[in-house]
Design brief:
Length: 406
Amino acid sequence: MGLNIQEIRSDFPVLAEKVYGKPLVYFDNAATTQKPVSVIQAEADVYNHYNSNVHRGVHHLSNVCTQAFEDVRKKVASFIHAASSDEIIFTKGTTDSVNLLAGSLGDTLFSVGDEVILSEMEHHSNIVPWQLLQKRKGIEIKVIPVTDEGELDLDAFEKLFSAKTKLVSVTHISNVLGTINPIEKIIETAHKHGVPVVIDGAQAVHHLPIDVQKLDCDFYVFSGHKMYGPTGVGVLYGKRKWLEIMEPYQGGGEMIDKVSFSGTTFNDIPYKFEAGTPNFAGVIALGAAIDYLQEKGLSKLWEYEHSLFEYAVEKLKTVPNIHFIGKAKARTSVISFLIGTAHPFDVGTLLDKLGFALRTGHHCAQPLMDRFGIPGTVRASFAFYNTKEEIDRLVQALGQIEGMLG
Ligand SMILES: *Cc1c(COP(=O)(O)O)cnc(C)c1O
């Protein structure tokens, strides 16, 4: 398939680390991904060569930095096929993007008693901002239930709409179950009711090719650090027609047109939503992450990664007493499981001692844990720098651990 995985691995310095003297096996990619040298270098280059505040100066460095920063806005727009780079707002991450939306749409769109529809498989970052809005404004939250297989119940979804429904906000891919939600259908249904849709793409944008225009979603949000970019930078895509009528989320420098004590007018989009000095070094490094994905070929990377996932599903079935959470027909990248009655934390601790980095716990999705009546899961999540040999080692280690705990 034309991918040289050993060569790819050598692009990610951290993968060569040892943990307790054992080679690191990094299966916690749904929490954050590792960074290739090119991303680390891009951020260092800013500080080594052209660090200067953006959009501020007439001087050379500021212009170079501003150009590099704005080039990434164009790069992100083309990466997700936005109609215009004006529709790309840089944030701190997915959480920040959803808070921006809850804050701004809360003012623009919602009145007392209006409703937002979320799902039972949302990450806390797509629940709590809406609960804060609920407290502030007296809105209602409706929830799409999850089936035993770990899929959204679309019949129940249809029935949640009322004359008061103002917004639907759902995840593209579940960070716990790996379920790929049928967002095309969800968006179509919501639009039939005249309701805009937010998609949480934190687990999707680095796996699937995203075309926000084809999807026709109103908003799409994601984090840099989950797509091999740096921490502290994320994206909010919004359709121009929404961004233009939305109130600013925070006030400060850069987001204004003219400030006086008798009143302030705001800058155009996207700057209206970017108060203060942005994380320009992080944004520029995010651009390097997109370059990396495009150079290797996003679909080729995902094809390989999905084949790892399928291999892992088959191999893990051979572990005695393993029990999977989430069996959706369409899923990828993430496998959640439990071993017998062992607490996930105990399994994770034993795996850690063997050099494995897996996540255990509720994965910021406590309502979903409640849905399945479990305290948490052990989660293996894959990236294109993982290998079948690493999965074989995990299966062997889990067999050993099952024997110890059983
Ligand atoms: C990680 C994650 C988030 C939150 O992203 P942050 O980078 O922590 O802001 C939201 N939704 C999903 C599905 C995630 O996996």
